[in-house]
Structure formats: C-alpha cells, structure tokens
Design goal:
Order of helices and strands: HHEHEHEHEHEHEEHEHHEHHH
Shape: globular
Radius of gyration: 20 Å
Strand order of the largest sheet: 7-6-5-8-9
Distance between the termini: 20 Å
Number of strands: 9
Number of domains: 2
Bound molecules: phosphoric acid mono(formamide)ester
CATH topology of the largest domain: Rossmann fold
Largest sheet: 5 strands, parallel
CATH superfamily of the largest domain: Aspartate/ornithine carbamoyltransferase
C-alpha cells in the first residue's frame, strides 16, 4: 500500500486525490506541514544520476518533517556488488519506512517492493516508467490549459492533443505519459525517427498514434513534450544528429510556423542545441521550470500518501520479528 511503481497502479480517483493533496500541501503552513511525517524515515536509493527527481523527493520528504538518507551507487556497498535485494533489506533494518528508487533496470521498483514489503516510489526504473514525472507533467498541463482543480475523469483532457517527440524508445517519461494522458481523454502523438520510435510502439495502448513528420504533429498539438536522446542507452544505434535536428528539433522558426501557441515541455535534462534550442527553452511557450516546481508538490503528495498508508514503526517491528 502506498507504493507507486507505474501509473497503472493508480485509478483516476487516486490520480485526482494525489493532485488535490499536492494542492493542499503546497498551500499548507510550513510548520504544520512539517508535523505530518515528523521523524518518519525515508530512504532515497539512487543507482543512476538525477538532479530534479532526487532533489525534489528529498526536499518533499523534509518539508513533511521526515528524516531522509541518501544511498547512491558510487558511495555505498552497491559498488562492492551488493544486490538490490540486500540493499533494500539493509535499509529496512535501519528503519526505512519508504524507499524512493531510481535504477537503470526496468522492473527493479517492483522487485524492491516485493522483497522489502515497504512502500516504494519509483523514481525511474530503466526504460520502464517514471510515474512521478507523469503526475507532475499532468499537474503542469492542467494548470496551463485552465483545468487545474477540475475533477479528474476520463474526459478531462478530451480534445487535447499532446505530442511527445524524440527518443521515445528509451524514455520512461514517454511510457508513463503515454499511459496516463489517454486515460483522461487526451490524444497522444508519438513522434521520432524509427531508430528511436519503432513501429511496435503503436501497440502501447489506445489514444496513441505515431506521426513521423514533426511539423504535422505540431499543427495538431496544444502540448509538446520534447525528449532528450539518451546517449547512455543508445548502444549500437547510429543516428545522424544533423538530420535529426533538421527533422525533430524544437526551434523558434518551427514553433512559430507550426505551433505558435502550444505549451512546450521538457522533463530535463535538456541538451540545448540538439532536441531544443535555447531560444525555445527560455522562450514564452516553455513551461520547463514550472514542471520542476510542480515536482515538489507532487512528490510531497506521493511521500505523504506512502507513509500515511504505512503504519509508523511497522518496518522496525517486522524486522524485529524476523
Ligand atoms: N526528469 C528527470 O527525471 O530528471 P533527473 O534525471 O534530473 O531526475
């Protein structure tokens, strides 16, 4: 209970409750908010680098009064070969009541939840999912389209087209958004070259289509999400970057011609000059900093939800009995 491993774990009612809790926590008096999870223990277990997700989860847990500890691959016994299972059991024995995991391995968040019995928040597992990113993206989209605070339903985003452009194949952000947004009625267009978006991706689910021509996709879209090319996962794939830029880069000329009013998003990190130019990233259509800002409220809601559903001291008692 309380884990969020993929967006499919959440009913639309639960998505609505998380958005409402994020609003409530953001507005709450800081001292009162810090009483919510006073001295509860939250572990951040990061096997991959992160700036936004790690910092915002840590700040979120601290804002709720929790104690946090960070274990990263480079400075822990993971470097000596300790398994995810043993690392999880160790953190639980030390009193962790919730683990926030980022890992290069798809499915590792589920495994950690299974072996520890603790609520696990998936902060990105390989090419699988990044559910907290999809939730903060949803909060941003609702705010920008004037739909914040409205009840979450299967029709809330009816008539809205979102294009996700770039390295779809390797992107957990794309996978989580492509599964969440159509459930609220949005049409999601996936856009990119075949190396980064195989035809197979069309079987991802309803409400999705593929458009290889970025300009055509832009003309239909109210929201555009640009993605980084994930060089660390590209092994064996060759890509002509100049051709990629000419076809898929979000630049000022293209946006003015094909989507002058669209909301432009990017989960970060951005590679300026490749998938997006600085002119667009820093321009009036971009909401990239607002996405980052929304990460804090969403992650406060996820941590609060996880620990509210997990009794205080439960982990320590389970270990003592074992
Ligand atoms: N969007 C995102 O996950 O960024 P980080 O890798 O910096 O956490």
């Amino acid at each position: 209970a309380g884990s969020v491993l993929q967006v499919g774990d959440l009913s639309l009612e639960e998505v609505g409750a998380i958005l409402a809790l994020a609003d409530e926590l953001e507005a709450e008096d800081a001292a009162k908010r810090a009483e919510r999870l006073y001295k509860r223990r939250v572990s951040l277990l990061f096997y991959e680098s992160s700036t936004r997700t790690r910092t915002s989860f840590e700040l979120a847990a601290k804002a709720l009064g929790a104690d946090t500890s960070l274990v990263s691959a480079q400075s822990s016994s993971i470097e000596k070969g300790e398994s995810l299972k043993d690392t999880g059991i160790t953190l639980k024995a030390l009193g962790a009541e919730c683990i926030i995991l980022r890992s290069p391995y798809s499915g590792s968040a589920q495994l950690l939840a299974d072996v520890t019995g603790l609520p696990v928040l998936n902060a990105g597992d390989g090419m699988h999912e990044h559910p907290s990113q999809a939730l903060l993206d949803l909060r941003t989209i609702l705010q920008k389209l004037g739909k914040a605070g409205k009840p979450v339903s299967a029709t809330l985003l009816e008539g809205v087209t979102v294009t996700i452009c770039g390295d779809i194949f390797h992107s957990r952000v794309a996978r989580s958004n492509a599964q969440l947004l159509p459930r609220l009625g949005a049409h999601v267009i996936l856009c990119g070259p075949t190396q980064l978006l195989p035809e197979l991706a069309a079987s991802m689910g309803p409400g999705l289509s593929i458009e290889r021509d970025f300009d055509k996709a832009l003309e239909q879209s109210q929201v555009v999400m640009m993605l980084r090319i994930q060089a660390e996962r590209l092994a064996g794939l060759s890509l002509d970057l100049e051709e990629y830029k000419s076809r898929y880069q979000a630049n000022a000329e293209r946006m003015a011609a094909h989507a002058p009013k669209a909301v432009i998003m990017h989960p970060g990190p951005m590679i300026r000059g490749l998938e997006i130019t600085s002119e667009v990233a820093d321009g009036p259509q971009a909401v990239i900093a607002e996405q980052v800002h929304n990460g804090l409220a969403i992650r406060m809601a996820l941590v609060d939800r996880a620990l509210s559903r997990h009794a205080a001291g439960g982990a320590a008692k389970t270990v003592a009995k074992a």
